[in-house]
Each structure stands twice: as C-alpha cells, then as structure tokens.
Amino acid sequence: MLIRRRTPPAPPAPDDPVLAYALTDLDWYARTRDGARRWHWTTELGALLAGAATVVAAGIQAPAAVTATVAGIAVFIGGFRQVFNHTERYVLAAESWSRLRPAVERYRLLPEDERDAEARRVLVEAIEAVSAAEIQSWAIHRRGARSGSDAGPGIV
After folding, report:
1. Where are the transmembrane segments (predicted)?
2. Rg (CA), the chain
3. What pTM value is reported for the model?
4. Cα(44)–Cα(50) distance, rounded to whole angstroms?
5. Is 91 within a domain?
C-alpha cells in the first residue's frame, strides 16, 4: 500500500483573486482526493477482513450469533461501499486535481508583470473546464449506476 503525504496548501495570493480561487479549488480537490482514498482503503480492508472472518467463524463452528454478526458486518460494508462509492470520488478528485494543477503551475511560473487579463482568463477557463469535466463524469457515472433502476429520465 502506497502511503503519500498530503501536499501542503500553497500560500494564499491576496493580490491575485484568480490565483487564490484556483488554489482554493486545488486544495479542495487534494483534500477530497486524500479523504476518499482513505475511506476507499478502509472499506476495502474492512470488507476483506469481515469476509475472511465470516469464513473462519463458520469453519471453526463459532456460535451462530458470532457468525451472523460478522456476516452482517460484511454485508453492511458492501452496502456502505455501494452507497458512498469512495472509489469513484477518489478517482474524480484525483483527475480534477491532476488537470488543474498544471494550469495553476503554468500561471504561477509567469512573471508578475505578465499575469495580465489574458493569463487570468486562461486560468479561469481551466478552472471552469475542470469543474465541468468533474460534474459531467459524475453525472455519467450516476446514470450508468441507475441504468438498471426504474428512475425516470433526467433524474440523476
């Protein structure tokens, strides 16, 4: 398992509201990505442990209450994973962070006197494109997840 340190947030840019906006979004994506990754690993390990414990409990002929409790925990974790889907949240946040970060870095590499209206417009467009792509990916995933349900058209 790969353990990564959280990227420290960049210092705020009070004199550049567009950069501050971009850094705020970038920090949000990083926090969301890191939190979803932790939940993903926690639920995956919990499901593995609960599933294995159920088999062991049945194999050693543990009392029915113990086996049923462990099996119930395994089922609960499976439902928790389906409902909250931290894996998808992790992937979406990681993709968004990795798309926005280069745009922010390109902007920050510009000398202060070259950060004109055009450079700010390009950065704002990048922020908006990342946000739109994330929402679109989420909507596509939700529509795919409900394809077997009886939800009406347009309901996400």
Report:
1. 41-60, 66-84
2. 22
3. 0.77
4. 10
5. yes
- When divided into structural domains, the chain yields a total of 1
Question: For residues 18 and 122, what is the distance between their CA atoms, to the nearest angstrom?
Answer: 10
What pLDDT is recorded for position 143?
86
DSSP 90-140: HHHHHHHHHHHHHHHHHHHHS-GGG--HHHHHHHHHHHHHHHHHHHHHHHH
Residue 48 sits at the vertex; the CA angle it makes with 44 and 51, to the nearest 5 degrees, is 135
Residue 138 within a domain: yes
| Residue-number span of the structural domain to which 105 is assigned | 17-143
What is the spatial distance between Cα 101 and Cα 127, in angstroms, rounded to a whole number? Answer: 10
- Whether 36 contacts 90, CB under 8 Å: yes
Residue 10: the pLDDT is 58
Reported as half-sphere exposure (CB side, CA atoms, 13 A), residue 97 has a value of 19
> Which residues neighbour 127 within 8 Å (Cβ) at sequence distance 6 or greater?
21, 22, 25, 100, 103
